[in-house]
Design goal:
Elements (H helix, E strand, L loop, with lengths): L8 H5 L16 H11 L4 E5 L3 E3 L3 H11 L3 E9 L9 E2 L4 H8 L3 H6 L1 H6 L10 E2 L2 E2 L3 E5 H7 L11 H11 L3 E12 L10 H18 L1 H8 L1 H30 L15 H17 L11 H25 L4 H34 L5 E6 L3 H11 L6 E6 L9 H14 L4 E4 L6 H10 L6 E5 L12 E4 L2 E7 L7 H16 L4 H11 L5 H10 L3 E3 L14 H7 L5 E3 L9 H13 L3 H11 L5
Parallel strand pairs: 3-8, 9-10, 9-11, 11-12, 15-16
Antiparallel strand pairs: 1-7, 2-8, 3-7, 4-6, 5-8, 12-14, 13-14
Helix pairs in contact: 10-11, 11-12, 11-14, 12-13, 13-14, 17-21, 17-22
């Protein structure tokens, strides 16, 4: 990949290997350039080299031997040497806030004496043996394509710096190792290239650090999980500040014009009541016009119109208050001044926030990490489609529901849940093959309380059509099964649903419940059904009684999910008849999309008419 634009034909011919040079025509950045090269390569494993790296004889073969000896290694790196043959410290421990402070701040004396920095640089190790390390420099990497399919490629939101740290961290979180191979040796003459900290490099380094912090900081992750609420709070604070500034500017103008008025202006503290009232009515008018439910606008004209409408309403309320409370005439003049100033500052503040949000999206800060669950061709197609939509803010990851035939369902569910939480995944997208439907629906139900949204894509997504309307997940046609909820657990919400139906709905449909149970013919009376639901033995809407035949024919994955659900008086699989697989799929889909509203819908539909 030639990001420089300089001709490399002579270098390609002298390499001794079949070589193809990709020339994009502009500098794409290191991560994106690497990814373009990986996509163009056809080999199973890929060797990534910086242009300032010289490969010594036998090094590639040593990396291949190390890869065979370490089957869980996703990335292997050679020993890097300086141009004089001395060791270059290319293997590192992960950053802590102390090492970031010492290494990235202008504190050279402190950094040189710091124990944290020496440990971060692994100066306590002689680098003579092959071993797993936290991360390695991206100057030379031998990467398995199978690991890249699971973990994803380099994050293209990094233009330069920190993309190697990020990639290694993601490898470890997916269960892959990063291995330092001491037998492979290469010379890295970094002083002539990236180490020359020109202003552009300094800016790229700062941007990489900011992006890395935004991606892995627990605080910023929590803010991204509540992105909409965070934006609303910031917008409200900016609006309140705009109202304060408008009042202050109006008072300053009134003071400057004091010689033109018969009565003198009061001291500033006398207008505290007017200030608080202005802030209150401004926020109330903006909220009344829906400008906190939505914080973006189609264009400047729409922003000006909606903000202007809110300001007119706020000023009318302020003017009415001056008459209601018999405020002096110059206070009304202040109100008239506040109007245009308030519009100006609100318009500018809202525009500034929109520009910051657009810039963040353009730079890839508003990313959404998507974990794809599925092992077939459709899952691979979905991964490739999301990979092509990275500039839209999607970062695809991939995982297999079961890593080996011997892995118990409980262990696989715990592994995937740990991956969702460790990788801070915002979206889990199920893309099953037809024979994977029960398993992945069971996995989806196990992830409901993980904080991630659950989506369903692929050719069998029609099975979940009742969960909600089809919509777009970036480039994918998908169905939203479950929006993240951070309140009561699934079990508590299910219990609340049962009690709600027992005391508020069931008494009004008693005859229909009796008819429904009589038609089923299992000998359960309406009163006994009500008693069992209230005591917790059953649910109004639940699974079939698979335990009656000892779960015969129910796969372990499905049983893992359905055992947590009580048998139901009404089943969401009423339309499945005697087809065991269709019943399983329907009940698992219900469990994945459960809500109190869904329970009410299923219950009312099952008892809709007397039989």
């Amino acid at each position: 990949m030639n990001n420089s634009g300089e001709p490399l034909d002579d270098l390609a011919r002298a390499s001794g290997y079949p070589t193809r040079v990709l020339t994009p025509g502009s500098n794409l950045g290191y991560a994106r350039g690497v990814n373009e090269g990986i996509r163009a390569a056809s080999e199973e494993n890929v060797l990534l080299l910086n242009p300032d790296v010289r490969v010594l004889p036998g090094s590639v073969e040593a990396l291949e031997r190390a890869a065979a000896e370490h089957p869980r290694a996703g990335i292997l790196a050679p020993k890097l040497l300086e141009s004089d043959g001395s060791l270059q410290l290319s293997a590192r421990r992960f950053y802590t806030w102390r090492t970031l402070l010492y290494r990235r701040m202008p504190l050279p004396g402190v950094a040189a004496r710091s124990r944290e920095v020496r440990e971060h640089m692994m100066e306590d190790w002689d680098h003579l043996d092959t071993r797993a390390v936290d991360w390695v420099l991206g100057a030379a990497m031998y990467v398995r394509r199978s690991a890249m399919r699971d973990v994803g490629l380099m994050d293209e939101r990094y233009f330069l710096y920190f993309e190697d740290v990020d990639w290694c961290q993601r490898m470890w979180r997916h269960g892959y190792e990063v291995v330092y191979c001491a037998d492979a040796r290469m010379v890295h003459e970094y002083e002539r290239a990236s180490a020359q900290m020109r202003p552009r490099s300094v800016r790229a380094h700062a941007a990489g650090l900011l992006r890395f912090t935004e991606k892995w900081s627990a605080i910023l992750y929590a803010m991204s999980q509540h992105r909409r609420r965070t934006i609303q709070v910031v917008t409200l604070a900016m609006d309140a500040l705009a109202a304060v500034v408008a009042c202050a500017a109006a008072y300053a103008i009134r003071s400057a014009l004091d010689p033109w008025f018969d009565r003198p202006v009061f001291p500033a503290e006398s207008y505290a009541g007017l200030l608080y009232f202005t802030v209150g009515v401004t926020i109330a008018a903006l909220a009344m016009n829906g400008l906190y439910r939505r914080t973006d606008f189609t264009d400047r004209i729409e922003r000006a119109f909606l903000v202007g409408k809110s300001v007119v309403q706020a000023v009318l309320l302020l003017m009415a208050a001056t008459f209601l409370f018999q405020m002096p005439r110059y206070s009304r003049f202040l109100v008239l001044l506040v109007g245009p100033l308030l519009f100006l500052f609100l318009y500018v503040a809202r525009g500034a926030l929109a520009s910051v949000a657009a810039g963040a999206r353009k730079q890839g800060f508003a990313f959404r990490r998507v974990l794809l669950l599925g092992s077939g061709a459709e899952a691979e197609q979905a991964r490739a489609a999301l990979e092509g939509s990275r500039r839209e803010g999607f970062e695809p990851l991939h995982a297999r529901a079961s890593s080996s035939p011997d892995e118990p369902p409980e262990a696989a569910a715990a592994r995937i849940r740990s991956l969702v939480e460790g990788e801070r995944v915002q979206i889990v997208c199920l893309v099953p093959e037809p024979d994977e439907v029960p398993y992945l629906l069971a996995m989806g139900s196990a992830l409901r309380d993980s904080g991630a949204a659950l989506w369903w894509a692929g050719s069998v997504a029609h099975l979940a059509a009742a969960a909600g309307e089809s919509r777009r997940l970036g480039p994918l046609d998908a169905v939203l099964l479950h929006a993240p909820s951070r309140g009561l657990s699934l079990r508590a919400r299910k219990r609340a649903s049962d009690l709600l139906l027992s005391f508020l709905i069931a008494p009004w449909r008693w005859g229909r419940i009796r008819s429904y149970l009589a038609e089923r013919g299992d000998g359960l009376a309406a009163g006994e059904a009500w008693r069992q639901v209230v005591t917790g033995a059953r649910s109004w809407v639940g699974r079939s009684p698979y335990e009656a035949d000892r779960w015969t024919g129910v796969p372990p994955w499905a049983r893992l999910a359905l055992e947590s659900l009580r048998p139901g008086v009404v089943s969401p699989a009423n339309g499945a008849g005697s087809d065991r697989r269709a019943r399983l799929e329907s009940e698992l889909a219900y469990l994945t999309r459960f809500s109190i509203a869904e329970d009410l819908r299923v219950f009312l539909r099952a008892t809709e008419r007397k039989r």
